[in-house]
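User: Hello! My lab partner asked me to get a predicted holo structure for this protein. The small molecule is coenzyme A, SMILES included with the sequence. Please write out the structure tokens.
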Amino acid sequence: MFACPVAERTELRLLEERHADELALLVDRNREHLRAWLPWVDGSRTPADARIFIAGAMRRWGQNNGFTAGIWHEGEMAGTIGLHAIDWSSRASSIGYWIGSDFQGKGIATAACRAVLDHAFGALGLNRVEIRCAPANRRSRAVPERLGFTKEGTLRQVQLLYDRYTDLVVYAMLADEWIGREMGA
Ligand SMILES: CC(C)(COP(=O)(O)OP(=O)(O)OC[C@H]1O[C@@H](n2cnc3c(N)ncnc32)[C@H](O)[C@@H]1OP(=O)(O)O)[C@@H](O)C(=O)NCCC(=O)NCCS
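Assistant: Hello! Below are the structure tokens for the protein in complex with coenzyme A.
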């Protein structure tokens, strides 16, 4: 379906059912890496789980309520990035992302995020996009920081991560900041 180049060797494609096996394999290979920060990993064990996830993501896309795209790097699935459910009354949403450990350190997540922000503030006309990261998730926090997000504060014990509640630092970008930044670049 849609393929959106985000860097020289990296592109986003909306996830479709035919990607389920590749997605399940990537999650399985990175289980410990992802489990440190993401609450859904234990519930995603098989290609059937991946198919259910993808079906939900496609439904949200069909309802104009966010999306999940796979990130492909040099032809290989590297991770996913998504725009979560959209609050259309306030034109606000948030971005979530992960990549396999082998794909870290190449700017892939930052480039993917930049493309999702262009889409969110461009075609979708949103006004505010958040990224929430655990305080200790240095690599994830570096993504919004690199992109010029404002750190707005910390939500306390807002996420249940398996056996404990974790805080999340809230970063936000506003439409006029993003568009002004792109024009100034
Ligand atoms: C969070 C996560 C996506 C960040 O991955 P990442 O590789 O550090 O981020 P990017 O892909 O944007 O790459 C940035 C790195 O590539 C380097 N880089 C190389 N070329 C680059 C470029 N053109 N642009 C930006 N960075 C570049 C940067 O210096 C940085 O490396 P450094 O941390 O060693 O300085 C990844 O660690 C992950 O998936 N973690 C597990 C799941 C998770 O935490 N998800 C987020 C939950 S909030």
